[in-house]
Each structure stands twice: as C-alpha cells, then as structure tokens.
Amino acid sequence: MESLLLALAVLACPVGMGLMMWMMMRGQRKGSGDSSEQQVAQLRAEIDQLKADRETRQPKGAQ
C-alpha cells in the first residue's frame, strides 16, 4: 500500500504538468487567430499616431 502511494506521488507531478501544457496549448490555438490580428492593427495605428505626433513637434527644417 505504501509503495502504491509513493508511485502515485511520483507520477502526479509529470502527469499534472502534461495536463497543464495540453490545456495551455489548447487555449492558444483558440485565441490566436482574430485577437492577434486585432492587436497588430492596434499597434500599427499607435505607431502612425506617434509618427504624426513626432512630425508636429519637430521644428521646421530640423530632421
């Protein structure tokens, strides 16, 4: 009985880690499509805004 409990304790860590990895990979596949495209579009808009702000702050003739 004691050896059975020891075997369960030894197997609990790798089995639990495998389950967590599987669940994380499953979650990434579901949310990676639309949200990443949306994030890229948002970042591009932010870059455009920063470029426009930089152009308005520079004195004329200085670049």
How many distinct domains? 1
The radius of gyration is 26 Å
Shape: rod-shaped
Number of strands: 0
Which quaternary structure do these chains form?
Answer: single chain
- By DSSP (H or I, 4+ residues per run), the number of helices equals 2
Structural class: mainly alpha
Tell me the fraction of residues in β-strands, as a range: under 5%
Low-confidence stretches: none
The biggest beta sheet reads: none
Q: How far apart lie the N and C ends?
A: 79 Å
Overall mean confidence score, pLDDT: 86
Element pattern in H and E: HH
The portion of residues assigned to helices is over 70%
Q: What does this entry look like structurally?
A:
Residues 28-63 are annotated as: Disordered. This is DUF2933 domain-containing protein. It comes from Amycolatopsis tucumanensis. Residues 45-63 have a biased composition (Basic and acidic residues). With 63 residues, the protein is mainly α. It has one domain (2-55). It is built from two helices and no strands. It has helices at 2-31, 33-57.
